[in-house]
Design goal:
By secondary structure, this protein is an alpha/beta fold. It is 26% helix and 16% strand. The chain contains 16 helices and 22 strands. It has a seven-stranded parallel sheet with strand order 18-17-16-15-14-13-19. Strands 1-4-5-11-10-7 form a six-stranded antiparallel sheet. It is globular, with a radius of gyration of 25 Å.
């Protein structure tokens, strides 16, 4: 780990008044260079990482001897500033899970952790300060601050000698074009501001193409995860109030109805206290060991919901007291997961009370932040024993929480697959798919493609539906995502029996329930047939850093048409997925058949959409 000694702080005064300076590249891995500007902070993604780069795999990628570009930078009272050149036609992708945009050239993004992004500002529950471009390189800014990226949308004034006679004086109000906003056809800059910091490390990843740059970043993070095959099957999360008897009855019913399912998930009320959490089995589950054994006999795996905020009734509350932040959330402690002792206390309890009984994994909820749903998380002014403030902890909380849980399975040499609601840089090795309380179907499709730029996985989970047609459309997207799941946490019965929530929960099934169930069964059976193919794609992710789900532009960067396509994506090397969004039903102008694996109900409108096929020999899967 690179250390930055305090003796260099004397440079800060000079840097703060100096013009932008050039910094020499330092090779750190094959095809990866580091530029150090000023004195980087001690708490960053790289400084707190738990997986080392996959150096042998990096060396196997195409050899690149020269760093493709060099940043400039400076320090001021505002923090650290970095600038990198952009070519006239260069397009930008990444910056984490951005729900409302795909290509980032011309935008401004402040990468702030927020579960409920209300606009395209950069807020995300998985912001990542990494981007790639169509020039075939990637850039990672190693910071846990809320960095702002000006993606070629700023224009510096010209020198005095070049400004004479500019402009005609005519009214130009109607002359601002999209091309001008994106600064296409014009050289520009990526300008990055890191608040508070007195320096930063900037990593540059060579290509030679966008795809290889992404691979290099993923291998620098440690390479992709290897989920167990059962994790790639179908998941069903039970209603939150279910008891042990309810869970066993559901498990039996799914088998009787021949619904393929590998994982059952328990939601908050399996615990004695869940907001904040006790992590202790409630009276609803009087014999969890026997329940898990019974599920295992029926070939189910059990996944537990939890969040990290620790209630005073929890057995680990007192041990964690000295290893937690100074602010509470929902009356519970916020463990300092940058502290190894906090991680150990937390992990040891999960290992002895859950995993030792046969629990196969976790859903790590509410490890992000929220400004728009009650402001329930800890504030940025929080302080933690590790020295982190609330801003740094928000950025790293989700991924360091994954470290705590993942250590349980790593020590047992046991594979797991799970869910998490926040992640950050260098998340590639972690077997956890992101999810969200948001529920726009088009955004869910977009997120499958978007996540692949930054080493993230996305679950397009299914919850409610307005009608059976929407249920079918959402389930079709779900089975072609990294983790296929129905999250019925507020439904007593499976949604294919009744999509109406109120009717479902009083046991009133729809007249066409058998037909809808048959269609859903066929869709889920298709997912099961794809498990060997998906597993092979994850093996390649692990060995070569190639995302199993990725946008078309990653494989076809020279095809201009792919540069804005966010509603199609590749699954593995051979399958192009083009879901029909439920909101597109009956959309005027829809065309090009996209037949589902089972015919939609008669009420389903709009079974067509436009599909773009890049160059190559394509076959209709159906």
């Amino acid at each position: 780990m690179k250390k930055h000694l305090s003796v260099v702080t004397a440079m800060l005064a000079a840097l703060s008044v100096a013009a932008e300076s050039n910094f020499n590249p330092e090779p750190v891995c094959p095809g990866v260079w580091r530029f150090t500007i000023g004195v980087p902070e001690n708490i960053t993604p790289v400084a707190t990482r738990h997986y080392l780069p996959a150096t042998n795999a990096l060396a196997a990628l195409p050899r690149v001897q020269t760093c493709p570009l060099a940043p400039t930078g400076s320090i001021s009272a505002r923090g650290c500033f970095v600038s990198l050149p952009l070519a006239p036609d260069e397009m930008i992708y990444g910056l984490g899970l951005q729900f409302r945009s795909f290509q980032q050239r011309g935008s401004k993004k402040t990468l702030r952790v927020n579960a409920d992004p209300a606009s395209d500002s950069g807020d995300s529950h998985a912001p990542v300060p990494f981007y790639v471009t169509t020039r075939g390189y990637g850039v990672f800014v190693d910071t846990a601050r809320y960095a702002t990226f000006y993606c070629g949308n700023t224009r510096l004034k010209p020198p005095a000698s070049a400004s004479a006679g500019r402009g005609s004086g005519n009214d130009g109000w109607n002359n601002v074009t999209t091309t001008d906003r994106h600064r296409l056809g014009d050289a520009a800059e990526m300008r990055i501001e890191i608040p508070e910091a007195r320096g930063v490390d900037v990593y540059v990843f060579a290509g030679p193409s966008l795809r290889e740059a992404v691979q290099r970043y993923n291998l620098f993070a440690g390479g992709g995860p290897l989920p167990p095959r059962w994790g790639l099957g179908f998941w069903y999360r039970c209603q939150s109030d279910f008891t042990q008897t309810n869970v066993l009855n559901l498990a039996s019913a799914l088998r009787t109805e021949h619904i393929p399912c590998d994982v059952l998930g328990l939601e908050p009320h399996w615990q004695t206290h869940s907001y904040s959490c006790s992590f202790v089995w409630s009276a609803k589950f009087p014999d969890p060991r026997a329940m898990i054994a019974g599920l295992q006999q029926e070939h189910y795996h059990l996944n537990l919901w939890e969040h990290a905020f620790t209630h005073p009734s929890s057995p680990i509350y007192q041990p964690l007291l000295a290893h937690s932040g100074d602010c509470e959330v929902w009356g519970g402690l916020v463990p300092d997961f940058l502290d190894s002792e906090a991680r150990k206390i937390f992990a040891d309890f999960q290992a002895s009370e859950h995993v030792a009984l046969g629990v196969s994994g976790y859903k790590l909820d509410e490890c992000d932040n929220s400004d728009f749903t009650g402001g329930w998380s800890f504030p940025e002014l929080s302080r933690f024993p590790s020295g982190a403030d609330g801003e740094q902890m928000h950025s790293l909380f989700g991924i360091r929480y994954q470290d705590a849980i993942q250590s349980v399975f790593d020590e047992r040499r046991q594979r797991t697959y799970g869910l998490v609601r926040s992640s950050q840089a260098l998340a590639t090795p972690y077997p956890y798919a992101l999810y969200s309380d948001l529920y726009d179907h088009s955004q869910f499709i977009h997120a499958v493609a978007q996540a692949g730029f930054c080493g993230l996985l996305w679950s397009a989970e299914v919850r409610e539906a307005e009608n059976p047609a929407e249920l079918i459309r959402r389930l079709q997207t779900g089975i072609f995502s990294p983790l296929a799941m129905v999250n019925a946490w507020y439904l007593k019965n499976p949604p294919w029996k009744q999509v109406n929530r109120a009717a479902n929960n009083v046991g009133e099934f729809s007249p066409d329930a058998d037909q809808v169930e048959a269609q859903c069964r066929a869709i889920l059976e298709l997912r099961m047939k794809f498990i060997p193919y998906l597993h092979a794609a994850f093996v390649r992710y692990h060995q070569e850093g190639l995302p199993p789900f990725r946008a078309l532009v990653m494989d076809y960067p020279d095809d201009p048409a792919t540069r804005t396509i966010d509603d199609e994506y590749l699954m593995g090397d051979s399958v192009l997925v083009a879901p029909v969004a439920a909101s597109e039903a009956g959309r005027p102008g829809a065309r090009s058949s996209n037949r589902p694996p089972a015919a939609a109900p008669e009420t389903a409108a709009g079974s067509q959409r436009t599909v773009y096929l890049p160059a190559g020999d394509w076959q209709d899967f159906w």
